[in-house]
Amino acid sequence: MTLTREDLVQAIANLNESTRTRAISWRVCDSPSPPIANTLAAIMLQGFSYCAPYEGKILRVTEYRSMNPSTTKTPDPEMSTQNYYTLEIADEKGKPLYRFPTVQGIADLFQSVRIQMADVDDVINSLLNRR
After folding, report:
1. Does 46 reside within a domain?
2. 72 CB-contact burial (10 Å; exposed 0-12 / middle 13-18 / buried 19+)
3. Which of the residue ranges 6-20, 42-56, 58-72 would you say has the lowest mean pLDDT?
4. Quick check: is 49 in a domain?
5. Confidence of residue 41 (pLDDT cuts 50, 70, 90)
6. Domain residue limits at 57
7. Does pLDDT of 69 surpass 60?
8. pLDDT on residue 2
9. 129 in a domain, yes or no?
10. What is the mean pLDDT of residues 57-74?
11. End-to-end distance of the chain based on CA atoms, in angstroms?
12. Which of 18, 29, 38, 48 could pair with 23 as two cysteines, CB 3.0-4.6 Å apart?
């Protein structure tokens, strides 16, 4: 079976929805090395990862941030245009088996996982119920 780019985008959208509904639970995990050939550039990146078990494998979504202050265009590193995101399927030891190509939705997934981990939804829903 050949997967198209649209299939991968839909898979990520489904994963994002499962994250928002808490059907999939994530945890903080170790970040893999940045997927770049340039060693100096890799040293200047810091990764933040979340992992979730899924069908006997591990899903890992990672945000890489530039640690070089001269390349950060804004004071807030979360708003930096230097951030990029990866999604991988790994074995039980964390070794990558498949890395999704850069497609729409991976950054959104990372933000949904971050919201899940911080229980932001519960706080917002509580605020909505207090009128």
Report:
1. yes
2. middle
3. 58-72
4. yes
5. low
6. 5-119
7. no
8. 86
9. no
10. 74
11. 52
12. 18
Tokens 């497609």 found at: 103
- Count of structural domains, the chain: 1
Tokens describing residue 100:
């999704």
Residue 62, Cβ density class (10 Å: 0-12 exposed, 13-18 middle, ≥19 buried): buried
DSSP the chain: -PPPHHHHHHHHHHHHHHHHTTSS--EEEPPPPPS-S-HHHHHTEEEEEEEEEETTEEEEEEEEEE--GGG--SSSGGG-TT-EEEEEEE-TTS-EEEE--S-TTHHHHHHHHHHHHHTHHHHHHHHHH--
- Band the pLDDT of 90: cuts 50, 70, 90: very high
Query: How far, in Å, are 1, 2, 15, 16, 24 from residue 9 at the CA level?
Result: 16, 14, 10, 10, 18
Residue 88 covered by a domain: yes
